[in-house]
From TrEMBL:
MF-aspect GO terms: sequence-specific DNA binding
Annotated spans, Disordered: 1-28
InterPro entries recorded: DUF1153 (IPR009534), Trp_repressor/repl_initiator (IPR010921), WH-like_DNA-bd_sf (IPR036388)
SUPFAM superfamilies registered for this protein in UniProt: TrpR-like
UniProt-recorded name of the protein: DUF1153 domain-containing protein
Gene3D superfamilies xref list: Winged helix-like DNA-binding domain superfamily/Winged helix DNA-binding domain
Length: 93
């Protein structure tokens, strides 16, 4: 599901993140992120869906494969944010 991109009072583009708060490029996880918690994965997916980053930009920035990102997106679509839990992945298959 695509989101509508908006602009805040400072002229920054943003989308509504997974917690319901505005999400700008500066709010995204840093490129050197090693620990991917559910919220961070969901923020990256929301940014791509909202047009803040393209799929290729997200994969380059976070050193992800297209398949890994698409798996995150598919997990959210099928099971919500809980589907992003790596310790629970077998229960959702």
């Amino acid at each position: 599901m695509l989101q509508q991109q908006r602009t805040n009072s400072r002229g920054e583009k943003y989308v509504i993140g997974p917690t319901g708060a505005p999400l700008t490029l500066s709010d995204l996880p840093p490129p050197e992120t090693q620990r991917w918690v559910i919220r961070r994965k969901a923020e990256v997916v929301a940014a791509v869906r909202g047009g803040l980053l393209s799929l290729d930009e997200a994969c380059d920035r976070y050193k992800l494969t297209n398949e890994e990102f698409l798996a995150w997106q598919q997990s959210i679509d099928r099971h919500g944010m809980a589907g992003l839990r790596t310790t629970r992945i077998q229960q959702y298959r």
